[in-house]
């Protein structure tokens, strides 16, 4: 066997026993031993103390562990002395994202003694940003606490993301100026309510309205005042869409719609009168209108069993 093969064999045998948590590893340490652990802050100069540390290591993590080798170097220092330096990542049989992300460094010095090759020195460096508790070889308690904090942070961020997504979804369904449903939401809801009404043979009424002479109002009073008129009208419509399933939406520009499921035409026309009355009570001045105040034109259409939903828009035109 060549010296290179000997060095590889000695390291492989050590690794097999250590990773397999095999207590026979204790027999491989020299009586004249020194070493240090990755989480310890002291030098071990007594083999019995090292035996205790190894037993503690095995009891703390009794299941086999794995080294993902990064690099290894062999040094033939003398006829009876061999050094092995290994770089690897440690994978424990417990959640170890922090451990597995760092590179550990192990130095083993083997010395040939009367009863064979023994480990005369073992030093492992664990460059983890964690601290071991008293009685620990691996900093598992600190890692566990960090994992708990990380899980709590992930859960918190997930909740925040879900809430942000809900807000975005809500915003995507709302008109940015008036705060009521937008055209996209209306189109989707109309299709759903249309199919439901046809299945159940229930009435579905549609009210369309627009602001009279709105361009003249914008030209005379400015766009900010025009926006306030639209906001006021949206608020009035939202107050009329009180039942479950009712929908007030901005259709576009100064046009608005009310979708009224399970609503017969007489009830829908009463809603339009409620809108006219509520707007009239606002007494919004409009010098470009023959009536001197802001008014709206409204139209009502009722679903019939046959046909398509979009066929009823002309019927509801103001």
From TrEMBL:
Keywords: Coiled coil. One of its GO terms (biological process) is negative regulation of bacterial-type flagellum-dependent cell motility. Its EC number is 2.7.7.65. It catalyses: 2 GTP = 3',3'-c-di-GMP + 2 diphosphate. Signal peptide: none annotated. Pfam families: GGDEF (PF00990), SnoaL_3 (PF13474). It is an enzyme of class 2 (transferase). InterPro entries: Diguanylate_Cyclase (IPR050469), GGDEF_dom (IPR000160), NTF2-like_dom_sf (IPR032710), Nucleotide_cyclase (IPR029787), Rev_trsase/Diguanyl_cyclase (IPR043128), SnoaL-like (IPR037401). Residues 202-318 form the GGDEF domain. GO terms for cellular component: plasma membrane. Residues 140-174 form a coiled coil. GO terms for molecular function: diguanylate cyclase activity. CDD domains: GGDEF. This is diguanylate cyclase. It comes from Laribacter hongkongensis (strain HLHK9).
């Amino acid at each position: 066997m060549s010296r290179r093969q000997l060095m590889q064999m000695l390291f492989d045998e050590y690794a097999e026993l250590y990773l397999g948590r095999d207590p026979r590893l204790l027999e491989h340490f020299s009586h004249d031993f020194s070493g240090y652990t990755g989480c310890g802050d002291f030098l071990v100069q007594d083999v019995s103390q090292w035996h205790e540390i190894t037993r503690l290591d095995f009891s703390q993590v009794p299941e086999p562990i794995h080294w993902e080798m990064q690099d290894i170097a062999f040094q033939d220092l003398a006829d009876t002395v061999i050094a092995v330096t290994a770089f690897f990542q440690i994978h424990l049989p417990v959640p170890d994202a922090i451990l597995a992300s760092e590179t550990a460094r192990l130095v083993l010095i083997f010395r040939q003694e009367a009863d064979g090759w023994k480990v005369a020195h073992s030093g492992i460096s664990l460059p983890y940003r964690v601290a071991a508790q008293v009685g620990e070889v691996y900093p598992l308690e600190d890692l566990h606490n960090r994992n708990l904090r990380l899980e709590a942070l992930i859960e918190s961020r997930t909740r925040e993301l879900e809430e942000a997504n809900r807000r975005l979804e809500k915003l995507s369904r709302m008109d940015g100026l008036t705060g009521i449903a937008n055209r996209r939401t209306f189109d989707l809801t109309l299709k759903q309510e249309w199919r439901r009404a046809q299945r159940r043979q229930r009435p579905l009424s549609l009210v369309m309205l627009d602001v009279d002479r709105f361009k003249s109002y914008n030209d005379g009073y400015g766009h900010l005042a025009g926006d306030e008129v639209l906001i006021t009208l949206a608020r009035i419509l939202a107050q009329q869409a009180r039942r479950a399933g009712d929908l007030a939406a901005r259709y576009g520009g100064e046009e608005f719609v009310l979708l009224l499921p399970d609503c017969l035409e007489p009830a829908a026309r009463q809603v339009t009168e409620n809108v006219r009355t509520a707007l009239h009570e606002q007494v919004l001045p409009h010098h470009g209108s023959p009536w001197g105040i802001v008014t709206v034109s409204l139209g009502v259409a009722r679903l019939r069993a046959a046909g398509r939903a979009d066929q009823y828009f002309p019927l509801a035109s103001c």
